[in-house]
From TrEMBL:
Pfam families: adh_short (PF00106). This is 2,5-dichloro-2,5-cyclohexadiene-1,4-diol dehydrogenase. Residues 6-194 form the Ketoreductase domain. InterPro entries: KR_dom, NAD(P)-bd_dom_sf, Sc_DH/Rdtase_CS, SDR_fam. The keyword Ligase does not apply. Keywords: Oxidoreductase. GO terms for molecular function: oxidoreductase activity. Its EC number is 1.1.1.-. It comes from the Bacteria. It comes from Halomonas chromatireducens. Coiled coil: none annotated.
């Protein structure tokens, strides 16, 4: 699947990894429908020029995401939508039992799972249904889906029950989704980032962020959003990448 002259839906595109992926795809000659809950996605689309359009939407809403997929298909013209890079997500930290002995808030747990896991399924099902109708390209390929997990899916830290579970769910869906969608010529991949320099990281205290950066074997720094975008570009372009989760983490194993 080439980026040039193809159209991709990018969720979570107002910020961080999604915003960088949209920039890279446009720089490579592709078109993007950038979608986010945050209104600033409109300004980001404008900064990307004629090849980008924006839509505001919540990834947990069936109506919003159907509208986003429809808009991406329309932007793609005759070729429709070639792929989705799903980056929308939230981080959350809560202990099962806090210092005062209170149990964790159940609604907060469910909210994280709803956005990160159910939202991923929502985007994936609607994008797959749209792309299944595409004309087949080389090898019969009709589309590609890239989801965003996290290394927390594998080595979650204290306080990450909700976040780790939601991302482990994203990891768990990769293979069954890839197997099922193979008959439509649609690939499914996930990227599991380590620690990246995005606005999401600003929710973590400075000291903790420094400690995380220092614990990366090499390079000893946080990842740059464009390094995520470069992997997304490679996945889109390489048809043998399918049904797999790629850690992009400088070798970090969180403790
Ligand atoms: N930054 C990191 O270190 C890191 C590490 C591992 C995984 N990730 C994952 O990467 C993805 C992108 O994170 P980021 O670092 O770019 O964060 P970010 O906060 O910069 O961007 C996330 C975007 O998702 C949007 N969003 C949140 N909830 C939404 C919803 N319900 N509907 C639509 N949009 C919504 C936000 O408005 C925001 O623009 C997330 O899934 C995150 O869990 C990030």
């Amino acid at each position: 699947m080439q980026l040039k002259d193809n159209t991709f839906l990018i969720t979570g595109a107002a910020s961080g990894l999604g915003a960088a992926t949209a920039e890279r795809i446009v720089a490579a000659g592709g078109r993007v429908m950038v979608c986010d809950l945050n209104d600033s996605v409109v300004a980001h689309a404008e900064s990307l020029g004629e090849s980008a359009r924006a839509c505001r939407g919540d990834v947990t809403s069936a109506v919003d995401m159907q509208a986003a997929v429809d808009a991406a298909v329309a932007l793609g013209g005759e070729k429709g939508m070639a792929g989705v890079v799903h980056c929308a997500g939230v981080v959350s930290v809560a202990k099962l039992v806090d210092r005062e002995g209170n149990p964790a808030d159940l609604d907060a747990y469910a909210r994280t799972v709803q956005i990160n896991l159910v939202g991923t399924f929502n985007v994936m099902r609607l994008a797959a249904a749209a792309m299944a109708g595409n004309a087949p390209g080389e090898d019969g390929e009709r589309g590609v889906i890239i989801n965003t997990a996290s290394v927390a899916a594998f080595d979650g830290q204290v306080g990450q029950c909700a976040y780790s579970a939601s991302k482990a769910g994203v990891v768990g869906m990769s293979l069954p989704a890839a197997r099922e969608l193979s008959r439509h010529g649609i690939r499914v991949m996930a990227i599991a980032p380590g620690v990246f320099q995005t606005p999401m990281m600003s929710e973590i205290p400075d000291e903790a962020a420094k400690a995380l950066a220092a614990s990366v074997p090499f390079p000893k720094r946080l990842g740059k959003p464009d390094e995520f975008a470069r992997l997304a570009e490679q996945i889109i372009g390489n048809p043998m990448l399918n049904g797999e989760v790629i850690r992009l983490d400088g070798g970090i194993r969180m403790q």
